[in-house]
Amino acid sequence: GSNVLDGAAPWYGAYATADGRHMAVGAVEDRFWAQLLQGLGLDAASLPAREDRAHWPGLRAVIAGAMATKTQNEWELVFAGTDACVSPVLTLSEAPHNAHLQARGAFVDAGRMLQPAPAPRFSATPGRANLETPFNAAVDAAYLAEWGLAAAQADGVLAVRTRETP
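^ that's the sequence the OP posted. Answer follows.
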């Protein structure tokens, strides 16, 4: 990256935690940056000016070093209730059960599975979730082959999928 919002800036990106998970950071504004540093236990006075792009790699390394000292759950507790703009990077199975995402109605029940709700949401033209889960064996087999599954593995996956599809 090379700019503020593509991951080059140290205050906008994802950082590995001690348990190999990640935290997303979006502390773009000064007040969020200050809370990020406070949560990380870093003294702003000891760091170079964040506006100077020449310092970005060094600042990123400092933040990465700090993030690597705690697990994702520990960082989540540190930043809970703050405006530091720091959140856990969740797996697809974790995301529907996250309290914040549940409160926002970010997932809808599509029968046998939860799926992301339409976004963004507009009052005049609200989105509608497609709750049908179509099954097309030929298309699914092509994707499985493209992803590198051997024919026997793909057949096994499709057999299970066929049994689960009403």
